[in-house]
Amino acid sequence: MRDVAIIGTGMTKFGNLGRVTSRELVTSAALEAMNDAGVERGDIDAVYLGELSGDIFEHQMHAAPGIPDYLGLENTPSTRVEAACASGGLSVMHSIMAVAGGFYDVVLATGAEKMTNLPTAHVTEALSMCADDIYEVSLGVTFPGAFAMMARAHEMEYGTTPEMRAAVAVKNHKNAMDNPNAQFHKEITIEKVVNSIMVADPLTLYDCSPITDGAAAVVVVPWEDRHKYEGPAVKVRSFAQASDTMSLHDRPVLTGFKTTQIAARNAFERAQLQPKDIDIVEVHDCFTIAEIMAIEDMGFFKKGEGGKVTLDGVTARDGQIPVNVSGGLKAKGHPIGASGVAQVVEITNQLRDRAGPRQVPDVNIGMTQNLGGSGSTIVCHILERGD
Amino acid sequence: MEVGQPLSVIFWREVTKIQIEHVVEAYEKAINEDKIVGTKCLECKHVAVPPRPICRKCGSSDIEIVEVDPNGELITWTVIFVGPPTYEDRAPYIVGIVELENGERLTGLVDIPANELKYKMKVSATFDPEVKNAARLIWKSSE
User: Fold this and answer.
1) Disulfide-capable partner of A372 in A84, A312, A320, B74 (CB 3.0 to 4.6 Å)?
2) What confidence score (pLDDT) does residue B4 get?
């Protein structure tokens, strides 16, 4: 097994991008990543694409070959990875595995989604298909609904208040102000979140991440080859993935994700690191409660304290451990298949001191947590500043 | 069939295999008759609801379909205001997770006014006559 480096990043603007296809968006993000890395088109050995559903959003299955097609990389192997909202994280993970295993030397890990083609009710339906179709979706369970049931369980068990959840949204909207690619550049208040319309009680509209178009890409190469290219390298210290039941009701604990606990623990063990060694984190805040559960389950805070520490500013950009400095899914936007890749883009750029106005000083080790379904898939990556 | 092999063994394997491939069908057939079923592991006796092809406790695939007590306690719920197209007309509607008497859990629609919902309230399963299969499950108060 070879050590692996990430040497280039790219992403499109996130938001409602109008008449554009996901393969055009990926082409744009991929070119940016390739230019950043200093790799030529002929260097690319393989392409991975994380995408939930070109099928439903764009009436396009078999989306992967569209990427080398538009990049002018005809005949380059391409693979679509689908794991609900963790599709992007797994695209990166499989790219790393392919390079680590010695099968390829330069891999483009990409992710995209073009969601705004459909009205909200149809997007809700498409996303709900990531839950258990027979035992949940047929009974009207939506994703806001599933996370609302967890938010209620967390509220009953630990006293996590609507204001604590709202603090996640307020922080991430504030962070997004300094991210030019973010969907929202608008600060919000706790009152606004708590008093906005209810989507799935107790989660309001501002507890939920938006419907977004966008793409992101990174270039993955062997660590030993990093100096062959222009882009400053970040080292992949570890990754880990875990699965859980399709149905939420089949899990004994509803106040967090065993999958996050397992994936984070395995990632820490493989990297020989502990939560206290992490300087910056991007977690999967598809809903405010998801960020609270993630920072607890990853081991940064005790179970039940995630809401309180967020309200106290511990996870702010200038806090003890900055969480979702990019704006997170909540304010940067959540183009499903792109989100896991965009997390790696953010951490990579932070570790290369290339995060512009939102650069966090003195960061050496960063981590990502990308979630699919109601936590049925989790993938974590730990990255370290290069030499 | 090989000559000399005990008939009962072959028969049993075939029955088990059929059950593994049809646990969803068994659930749907039962709920269409106003019953909830699970799978009982014949090795460790654990009962899983909804039915599962392999026992989660011991890994055995020696299972049988058994009817379970349709009463339980509501452990979490949500009032959904934005539903998918199939449920748009019903919004707002309530879904919840119920822990059955045997400790297993099931998601269902909840037909109880939102302001009366409380943690661990007693509920029992009822069945929507207008629809088929798993979507029939509606929890009503039994307090």
Assistant:
1) A84
2) 47
Please report, for the domain that includes residue B104, its CATH number: 2.40.50
Q: Per the CB < 8 Å rule, is B76 touching A247?
A: no
Instruction: Say yes or no: B46 and B83 in one domain.
Output: no
pLDDT in tens, A117-165: 999 889 988 999 999 999 999 999 999 999 999 999 999 999 999 999 9
Binary contact (B109, A247; C-beta < 8 A): no
Residue type, A159: G
Contact A148 B75 (CB under 8 A): no
Q: Mean pLDDT across the stretch A29-43?
A: 97
Task: Kindly report the CATH number that applies to the domain delimited by A4-119+211-234.
Answer: 3.40.47.10
pLDDT at A225: 97
Instruction: Return mean pLDDT, chain A.
Output: 97
Which one from A85, A130, A286, A380 is the annotated catalytic residue?
Answer: A85
Greatest alpha-carbon pair distance for chain B in Å reads 67
User: A interface mutation test: which of B55, B79, B97, B133 has the most A CBs within 10 A?
Assistant: B97
Distance between CA atoms of residues A211 and A282, nearest Å: 19
CA distance linking residue A294 with residue A220, whole number of Å = 26
B 77-106 residues with CB < 8 A to A:
77-88, 90, 93, 95-97, 105-106
Give the domain range for residue B75. 71-141
Do B54 and B89 share a structural domain? Answer: no
Instruction: Tell me the pLDDT band of B21, cut-offs 50, 70 and 90.
Output: confident
Q: What is the pLDDT of residues A310-357, one digit of tens each?
A: 999 999 999 999 999 999 999 999 999 999 999 999 999 999 999 999
Question: Looking at chain B, how many residues does it have?
Answer: 143
* B14: confidence class by pLDDT, cuts 50, 70, 90: low
Q: Percentage of chain A with pLDDT > 90?
A: 98
Q: For residue A4, give the nearest of A90, A79, A98, A91 by alpha carbon.
A: A98
Bridge partners for A252 per DSSP: none
Which residues does residue A385 pair with via DSSP β-bridges, in sequence order?
A234
Q: Classify domain A130-209+237-385 at the CATH topology level.
A: Peroxisomal Thiolase; Chain A, domain 1 (3.40.47)
In this model, does residue A78 exceed pLDDT 60? Answer: yes
Query: What average pLDDT does this structure show over A56-70?
Result: 97
Whether A85 is a known active-site residue: answer yes
Q: How far apart are CA A210 and CA A288, in angstroms?
A: 12
Q: Which residues are paired to A287 by β-bridges?
A: A208
Per-position DSSP letters for A39-88, written without gaps between them: --GGG--EEEEE-S-HHHHHS----TTHHHHHHT-TT--EEEE-BTBTHH
What are the domain boundaries of chain A? 4-119+211-234, 130-209+237-385
Contact residues for A47 (Cβ-Cβ < 8 A; gap 6+): A30, A64, A67, A68, A71, A73, A76, A77, A78, A79, A107, A108, A110
What's the gap between Cα A323 and its chain centre? 12
Neighbours of A60 (CB within 10 A): 16
Contact B82 A139 (CB under 8 A): no
